[in-house]
Amino acid sequence: MYTNLGFLTSHNGSNMQAVISACNSGLLKAKPTVVISNNSNSGALLIAKQTGIPSFHLSTKTHPISDELDLAILNALISHKVDLVILAGYMRILGKRTLTRYQGKIINIHPALLPKHSGPGMYGIRVHQAVLAAGEKETGVTIHLVDSDYDRGAIIAQSTIAILPDDTAESLSNRVLEREHNFLVETIGKIIAGEIKLNKINQ
What we know:
21% strand; globular; seven-stranded mixed sheet; 7 strands
């Protein structure tokens, strides 16, 4: 029995690629069944095309009315029998229909130790710049459940990374991203194996 995975992503999709590779190698007992991006030029859609995964560009350009966009995303997930939704660099808040239908089954990965350095506009290199500006001694990766607020859902798992004296935002970004790839695969594996029970996490 395989777990069907659905991805929502806005940019390169490197975390998504790490999960797809883990599925293809048999490391994860899961199957990527759909990729959705709000960016028609995203690397994630190219990866999906190259690997034969059904993919869709769904955004305010394709669906200017927010409720219709929400419904289109939900229908794509349902029609591809998605069991677990993974937000991998997705820069938008999900709509109420999708959040309700997949409550407790949507996870996001964030490049910091939440609740620090989170919220609207805190993504990519901006997160690492903020971490260094705050004089933090450590940072890391957080995987959390998704709700109607940016980066505020219940934390599922975290991995800590020490900040080196000579770290720049770029060097820190590279080390955190490398950990993201492995940690996301590890955490999804635990969810599939039942070692992490999403319905037991406080939402």
